[in-house]
Specification:
171 residues, Immunoglobulin-like, 12 strands, 6-stranded mixed β-sheet, mainly beta, 3-stranded antiparallel β-sheet
């Protein structure tokens, strides 16, 4: 309770302090603004705060039937947008961020499976951004697949190639 009274007192003390802004020009012609009065300063009147109230939405007498989307049987487009094909990555931790682009968007239950150097890597993920760590030096191929909840492959991206290199040290 003591903290509540302290907070209320602090808010009441601060509220009137922020209301005044002063403007003045010094002998060099530089314009200054302050919350403290200065000789020759003019108090600036700020316009009222603009607010917006959204118009009320009329309530429909009869609610429409809910639209149920049919599950997506196939994705029109799947591609790896990051990293780019033939990219050389210089990273000491072997970290690579994979971003997959889908059309339509990833549906509930569907997951992304990465194919790394020709074999599935880890478990399918319910996200289009996947981070890989500890990737060894050298050339690697990456592809992505959309997998249904039953494990059926719905679509596969083109395969890209990346090159992992240690950072340059003698520059």
């Amino acid at each position: 309770m003591r903290n509540g009274w302290l907070l209320l007192g602090f808010c009441l003390a601060i509220n009137p302090l922020h209301a005044e802004i002063f403007k003045w020009t010094d002998s060099n012609g530089d314009v200054h603004f302050s919350d403290k009065p200065h000789p020759g300063a003019v108090e600036i009147e700020l316009p009222k705060v603009q607010t917006y109230s959204a118009p009320k939405v009329p309530v429909a007498e009869k609610s429409p039937e809910p639209i149920t989307k049919a599950p997506v049987e196939a994705y029109e487009k799947i591609s790896i947008v990051q990293p780019e094909n033939q990219l050389t990555i210089r990273n000491t931790e072997g970290y690579v961020s994979i971003i997959v682009e889908l059309e339509p968007a990833l549906q509930k239950g569907d997951k992304i499976q990465l194919i790394f150097d020709g074999a599935p890597l880890g478990k399918p993920q319910p996200t289009t951004v996947i981070a890989l760590r500890d990737i060894n030096r050298g050339s690697h191929t990456i592809a992505a697949q959309v997998v249904s909840p039953k494990g059926k492959v719905l679509n596969t991206s083109s395969t890209i190639t990346i090159f992992m290199m240690p950072p340059r040290t003698n520059m």
